[in-house]
Amino acid sequence: MDETSLGIDLNVSPYYKTDDTPQMNDDMAGELNQMRLKNKKLREMITVVLENSNSLQNHVNKLMQEHDSFASNTNKRKFSQCDDRNSSESRKSLHQESLKSRNDGVTKVYRRTDPSDKSMIIKDGYQWRKYGQKVTRDNPCPRAYYKCSFAPSCPVKKKVQRSVDDEGLLVAIYDGEHNHENVESEHKVASYERFKSSKEVGRFDAIFVEQMANSLRKNPDFIEELAVAISSKILEHDVF
DNA sequence: CGGTTTTGACCGGCGC
DNA sequence: GCGCCGGTCAAAACCG
Q: Where does the WRKY domain lie (predicted)?
């Protein structure tokens, strides 16, 4: 690939002119227009991604409601027994998604992971300190015990264990409510406040896109949902 | 050096 | 009382 294939003609670059101050020529105007078009396309893509994210969130909420009603219909069984036995049923609708259910201050989160990934980490925006690990009788996979890093002021604990019949499914049981802000959401609020006070309206697009990209790039859930959304769009339109 | 993880020991609840 | 089991403690190891 050479410079002509890139649409760049070095001989007519404004920086080759004797005048020190670069002047807008036809090539630069064309590049500027192309950049504007690309920016517009990026904004449209972000809009589509956000819409997909919202629809996914709605779908997850629906699943949560279905799961809760199912759990209440089967409350003759002990709650702790529901984990792994329900997982094979919920798994069918859980592909690539997480699911939450609550019971008496105990929150359960199901998270699909790569079965080859042996780590027991579920990123939820809070910082945790592991204080124990135990192999339980009904599951050969060890159960990890975590306390919130803000303990003892924050009483929240969580247990993380792989599902007994699906090693790709992590089950996290949260006990209690955090009495402080989520570290990630704090960071997002802080960066939004900085953005709001920046007053650089002319750089609105650049700052907005950069901050969104940085924020989303660090979010593994978003990457996962983005991959699902894109693949579903590819299948839907059968293009590329 | 301070925070986190690992891991064996210990504790308490429960069923027999 | 005894054994089993889940949960927690705490010292040592590890890591940035």
A: 117-183
